[in-house]
Amino acid sequence: MIRALVLNVTYEPLSVVAGRRAAVLVLTERADIVHEGDEVLHSERLSLPVPSVVRLRTLVKVPYQRHLSVSRRGVLARDAHRCQYCGSRAETVDHVVPRSRGGGHSWDNVVAACRPCNLRKADRSLRDCGLRLRVAPGPPRRTLWVTTAVDAVPALWEPYLTAA
Fold first, then answer.
1. pLDDT digits over 19-35, tens only?
2. Angle at the Cα of 125 (from 121 to 129), degrees rounded to 5?
3. Residues 47-93: pLDDT tens digits?
4. Beta bridge partner(s), residue 53
5. Do 55 and 32 contact (CB within 8 A), yes or no?
6. Strands (E), the chain
7. Which residues, 6+ apart, have CB-to-CB distance to 122 below 8 Å?
8. Which of 77, 119, 129 lies closest to 94, judged by CA?
9. Phi, psi (5° rounding) for residue 148?
10. Which end of the chain, N or C, is more open, meaning fewer C-beta atoms within 10 Å of its C-beta?
11. Mind listing the pLDDT tens digit for each residue in 118-134?
C-alpha cells in the first residue's frame, strides 16, 4: 500500500495517509504536492502522480502533544530491533522490572529483547540474572508514530521528520 506524509502549512508532520487519500486532498485543492511518488493514478480524463508528501493549504491547530501508547511495534522501533541486553536481533519485548514485581507497562520499563535473553531473565530482576542494559529505556522521540505507521520510512520523508 502506498502511503503519504501529510504536513501542516508550517511543514510540521501531521499524519500518514493512504496514497489515494493524499491524491483526493490534492484534487479537492486542500493540499499541494511537495514530493511525487513513483506511481500514477489514472482516470478517464486525468492522470495524477501519487503524492509521497503533501502540504495542507490551511493551518491545522494541534492542541496536544501526540501521545504514543506503549506497543511491541513501538518498542522494537525505538530500540532499532536490537536486544538491549546483548545487542543481537530482538524479536520480543521485556519488562525491566517484571510486572509481577510491581513494574509498570511504560516506556521507561519496557525494552526490546532477543528470545535467549528474555528466557534467561524470565521473571527476575537484572541483578538476579546478571544482565545489564546497554541503554536506559525512555520515551521515544516525537516522530516515532511515523515509524509505527509504515514499515520503512521513505528517504523523502526524512527532512520533514528530523526538523520536527
1. 999 999 999 999 999 99
2. 50
3. 989 999 999 999 998 776 667 788 898 899 889 899 999 999 999 99
4. 5, 35
5. yes
6. 3-7, 13-18, 31-42, 47-56, 92-95, 110-113
7. 129
8. 119
9. -80, -20
10. N
11. 999 999 999 999 999 99
SS3 57: coil
11 and 160 Cβ atoms separated by less than 8 Å = yes
Q: What's the rounded Cα separation, in Å, for the pair 50 and 22?
A: 8
Q: Is 22 helix (H, G, I), strand (E, B) or coil?
A: helix
C-alpha cell at 132: 545489564
Convert 118-129 to b/e letters by CB count within 10 Å (16 or more is b): beebeeeeeeee
CA distance 71 to 131: 23
Percentages of the chain per state (helix, strand, coil), in multiples of 5: 25, 25, 45
Residue type, 11: Y
pTM for the structure as a whole: 0.64
Cell representation of residue 99: 510486572
